[in-house]
TrEMBL record, chain A:
Its main location: other. GO terms for biological process: iron coordination entity transport. CDD domains: FhuD. Gene3D superfamilies: Nitrogenase molybdenum iron protein domain. It comes from Reinekea marinisedimentorum. Coiled coil: none annotated. This is Iron complex transport system substrate-binding protein.
TrEMBL record, chain B:
Its main location: membrane. It comes from Reinekea marinisedimentorum. This is Iron complex transport system permease protein. Belongs to the binding-protein-dependent transport system permease family. FecCD subfamily. GO terms for molecular function: transmembrane transporter activity. GO terms for biological process: siderophore-iron import into cell. GO terms for cellular component: plasma membrane. It is found in: Cell membrane. The chain crosses the membrane at residues 60-80, 92-112, 118-141, 148-169, 195-217, 224-244, 250-267, 279-301, 307-326, 347-371, 391-413, 425-446, 452-471, 480-501, 521-543, 564-582, 588-605, 612-633, 639-658.
């Protein structure tokens, strides 16, 4: 009882202390918010993921069921309301939730005029062909943290991430005796075609942090993925390690495919599947991708 | 004897074409290829290097797959065209592809692992169901007419819309399906061929049974009966054989459009006269066509960054080819049409008044209905907040204008081309607008929601000019008008599948837009649409005398001193304008243009002016109701009004047709 009385009181007090408007940065420039926002609406998955990472429970986010299936980490805390799809979030419900700030990514750009009537809008455009997505993810994570008054948490998470990345890098270096193979990371689209993670993709960046170079560099695209024929993987040298993300529903058929078995790196045993991870997320998804990639790489390391 | 020498020549031609096609993008020298083929023939191909394995396990199966699927498409296309005596019938126009597509989308959403394992039987079930539905709608006695094609289109739209709704609500899951949807012939080993071959065995019965039946059919059903032959059982057997082979081919490689439609028409043009001759010729031509386009697709994929599936290549080549052929050869019997049920209502002043009252009631409900929590059960009626109102009124205005406008366009079209199954989404004008927007978004990176009405207008204007230019020679024969629509729609589908397979952000914006949503409409553009639609509809009402005269028959209209060509072009222009306006603002809207005029007739509105008025109001009501339902049915998510309308309209339409047929 006391707590429920005191909490609003504390908020009012802190609000009074911080009454000065807050200057925040987003992908469109500088904005002035009346106060550090408490009620945050996140309209895209990568945004929701980062807000949750920063220790803020958003009041609303889109399509929680599918987020749980595809993004998975971090888990959605109790009390977040589902606001519909990413393309068409329910604006009336959003308005009723009275957010202090609405944070969006590129799919919602054309909704800005309608959203601004509800609350100030911050845009964090992470995935773009013309910049470095991983750097943008980290920068956006910091900017978002600044806007939400969580700089300390952000720096702590980023430091922890680079520590963990160094740990993983050291483990890999040890397992491979300093001779890390080149790696091609991809996801199956069908039995005959794959999406290769190239320049500007989170998996390739995560691998680079682990000290692993790409076996098959691809030009930068918006999400860093390029569609390729499976057979084209045959041009990669036998020392390559191929890592493909789960889930792939036709894995049983793959194992009986002669083309697959004839691929030089498959003959050489340099192949493993990678536990599911979201490849289009925010800063912390670099860590999650690095974890599963490192795990898969360690499993196929040569015997000592 | 002649047939045998022709067949031998055909097989030699096929062999030569195959050898040439094999060279497309192939790194292995020709001598090695022949050596490998020889080893493969004798079953001694072992210890191969990677390129040789690719050739044996990838390229050869792909070539055989193209040959097999192409010949099945040609054979079944010819069989169906001869059975129905309808040169417009083909797998593409019968709804099979969308049936398979829907089954796969639904399967992979609900049972992903199972669906991947049993993709082929699943797709086959969907394709068979869609075909059965199409035949059921048109009725066995209507197979030879345009109604068959239009029924196929209706099934296409219905199934396609449901699939799109599922994809939009679960966008992450359906992504990989698009490669299949785009018709990809690439093979990984022989397993798919091994699956397909036994499933195609029934197709061998077709050339054995069909010729006699087809010959008798040409004499007419009555003549055949007089010779003591009841054709129906054999007819049905042949239809089943054809459908089965077709479904198997679609299940194996996805949507390959146009081959089944074009091959028999080319065969006839090349002089195939006898039924068996046409069947075999079409089969050979189908194989040749698909081998050639597949080689082209391989070459384009080599040259460009993107992966180009064969289905995209066939659609991009087939659509213009079909339009070219339609200029002189393709004519379906246009006079057959579906009987609308007799109205139990009599038209009076109260009919439009009641519809207006219904519209007002819907408007009130849409305005007042509010849900204040995450639970839909907490709904209540109250005056909306300023913000809610600012969102709601443009949507209501657009729904009314779009529904009413499309309905009027539908009445015009049905009366102009004398076919109660015609709908504005059929004639290709809506498709033209859509194609322009999708292409702009794909190739120039323009956001499809911001591309604006001008681009859509340009697209539909080009489609309209093409339509008039092409159709004029044929005196605006409905078949030509419909064909252009079908061609454009198939091209759009191919482009969309291609974009989706590329998996970038614009693809989902395009898909969401294709659903036909009022969600993103601004206040300003809603007012613009309402004003423009009002002006055009007013013009149509002023020109209704023309419509009355043309409805009564062209000769009659001419005799009354009406310049039929001029009036026809003007009224068709109104249709195009209405459709372009609506499409540019909320995306393609299906079925309203088909349903609203029908409901008009069922409510007793027989005269042109009555039907226009009742359809206008019905269309507005329908769309408004669809938008309302779409906003709450999966609350807090939303389903686009265009999809709700297509599903409601399609389901109702099919119910109506079935009921009519039960009674007769």
């Amino acid at each position: 009882m006391m707590k429920t009385l005191i909490t609003p009181l504390l908020f009012t007090l802190s609000a009074a202390l911080l009454a000065a408007p807050v200057q925040v940065e987003d992908s469109r420039g500088s904005h002035s918010l009346p106060d550090v926002p408490q009620r945050v609406a996140a309209l895209n998955w990568d945004i929701a993921e980062q807000v949750i990472e920063l220790g803020v429970t958003p009041v609303a986010m889109p399509n929680i069921a599918d987020y749980t299936a595809w993004v998975a980490q971090p888990a959605v805390p109790e009390g977040v309301e589902d606001i519909g799809t990413r393309m068409e979030p329910n604006l009336e419900r959003l308005a009723q939730l009275q957010p202090d700030v609405i944070i969006i990514a590129s799919p919602q750009i054309d909704l800005v005029p309608k959203l601004e009537q509800i609350a100030p809008v911050l845009l964090y455009h992470t995935y773009n062909e013309s910049h470095d997505n991983a750097q943008a993810a980290i920068e956006n994570f910091r900017r978002m943290a600044a806007a939400l008054g969580k700089e300390a948490e952000a720096e702590q998470r980023l430091t922890a991430m680079s520590q963990r990345l160094n740990e993983l890098k050291a483990q890999l270096s040890e397992a491979y005796l300093g001779q890390l193979p080149r790696v091609v990371a991809f996801r199956f689209a069908s039995l005959t075609s794959v999406y290769v993670y190239g320049d500007n993709s989170i998996p390739q960046y995560a691998l680079a942090q682990l000290g692993v170079a790409p076996a098959w560099p691809q030009p930068a695209t918006q999400w860093g993925v390029t569609q390729k024929r499976l057979k084209a993987l045959g041009q990669l040298p036998a020392e390559t390690v191929a890592l493909y993300y789960q889930p792939f529903d036709e894995e049983a058929k793959l194992q009986t495919s002669k083309i697959w078995q004839a691929l030089p790196f498959v003959r050489n045993g340099g192949v493993n599947s990678v536990a599911p991870a979201w490849n289009y997320g925010g800063a912390m998804s670099i860590l999650y991708n690095a974890e599963v990639l490192a795990e898969a790489l360690l499993a196929v390391a040569p015997e000592k | 004897m002649k047939l045998i020498s022709q067949s031998t020549a055909g097989l030699l031609l096929l062999l030569a074409a195959s050898l040439i096609a094999l060279q497309a993008g192939e790194s292995l020298p020709l001598a090695d290829q022949i050596g490998l083929l020889d080893q493969l023939w004798h079953g001694v191909a072992t210890n191969l290097n990677y390129n040789a394995i690719l050739f044996v396990e990838g390229r050869i199966p792909r070539l055989l797959m193209a040959m097999l699927v192409g010949s099945v498409l040609g054979l079944v296309g010819s069989l169906m065209q001869q059975l129905t005596q309808n040169p417009l019938v083909s797998p593409l126009t019968l709804g099979t592809a969308s049936g398979a597509w829907l089954a796969l989308v639904a399967g992979s959403l609900w049972f992903p692992v199972l669906a991947a394992q049993f993709a082929a039987p699943l797709a086959m079930t969907g394709a068979m169901l869609a075909l059965a539905l199409t035949v059921f709608i048109a009725g066995l006695s209507n197979l030879s007419g345009l109604p068959m094609v239009l029924a196929g289109l209706a099934v296409n739209i219905l199934f396609g819309s449901i699939a799109t709704a599922m994809i939009l609500l679960n966008d992450q899951y359906a992504r990989d399906l698009f490669i299949w949807g785009a018709g990809d012939l690439e093979q990984n080993g022989w397993q798919l061929l091994h699956w397909l071959l036994p499933n195609l065995l029934p197709a061998l019965l077709i050339p054995a049974i069909a010729p006699r039946v087809l010959m008798l059919l040409r004499l007419g059903q009555d003549n055949a009966a007089a010779r003591g032959l009841t054709l129906l059982p054999l007819f049905l057997l042949l239809l089943c054989l054809g459908l089965w082979s077709l479904s198997a081919a679609i299940a194996a490689v996805g949507v390959i459009s146009f081959v089944g439609l074009l091959a028999p028409n080319i065969a006839r043009r090349l002089g195939a006269r006898l039924p068996l001759q046409e069947l075999l010729f079409s089969s050979l031509l189908g194989a040749l066509l698909l081998i050639a386009t597949d080689a082209l697709a391989i070459l384009i994929t080599e040259l460009s960054v993107n992966l180009v599936p064969t289905g995209v290549a066939t659609a991009l080549i087939g659509a213009p080819a079909l339009i070219y052929f339609s200029r002189s050869r393709l004519k379906a019997k246009d006079n057959l049409h579906l009987e609308l049920p007799l109205s139990r209502f009599r038209y009076s002043l109260y009919t439009p008044l009641l519809l207006v009252a219904l519209l007002i009631a819907l408007l009130l409900l849409t305005t007042l209905l509010t849900v204040e929590t995450a639970q839909l059960s907490d709904w209540r009626l109250q005056w909306p907040s300023d913000y809610s109102w600012s969102l709601r009124w443009p949507r209501m205005l657009v729904a009314i204008a779009a529904g009413g406008g499309t309905a009027v366009a539908g009445v015009l079209l049905q009366r102009l081309i004398y076919n109660p199954l015609a709908s504005p989404d059929v004639i290709g004008v809506s498709a033209g607008a859509t194609l322009a927007l999708v292409a702009a978004s794909l190739f120039f990176g323009i956001n499809i929601h911001q591309a604006g009405p001008w681009l859509a207008f340009l697209g539909s204007a080009i489609a309209l000019v093409m339509l008039i230019a092409l159709a004029k020679r044929q005196h605006f024969a409905p078949s030509v008008v419909v064909l252009i629509g079908i061609s454009m729609t198939a091209m759009i589908e191919a482009l969309v599948h291609f974009a989706m397979a590329r998996a970038d952000e614009s693809a989902f914006a395009i898909l969401a837009w294709l659903a036909g949503s009022t969600y993103r409409v601004s206040a300003q553009s809603s007012v613009l649409l309402a004003v423009a639609v009002t002006v055009i509809v007013a013009l149509v009402f002023m020109l209704q005398r023309w419509l009355v005269l043309i409805s009564a028959g062209r000769v009659f209209a001419q005799a009354r001193g009406l310049s039929v060509g001029y009036a026809f072009a003007t009224l068709l222009g109104c249709v195009a304008l209405l459709v372009a306006l609506v499409t540019s603002l909320m995306g393609p809207v299906a079925f309203v243009g088909l349903l609203a005029p029908h409901i008009g007739v069922m409510l007793g509105a027989r005269k042109a002016s009555q039907q226009l008025l009742v359809a206008l109001l019905t269309g507005a009501n329908l769309m408004l109701f669809a938008d309302l339902l779409g906003q709450y049915i999966v609350y807090p998510a939303q389903i686009a009004a265009g999809i709700i309308v297509a599903v409601l309209g399609g389901a109702y339409f099919i119910f109506l047709l079935i009921r009519t047929r039960m009674k007769s």
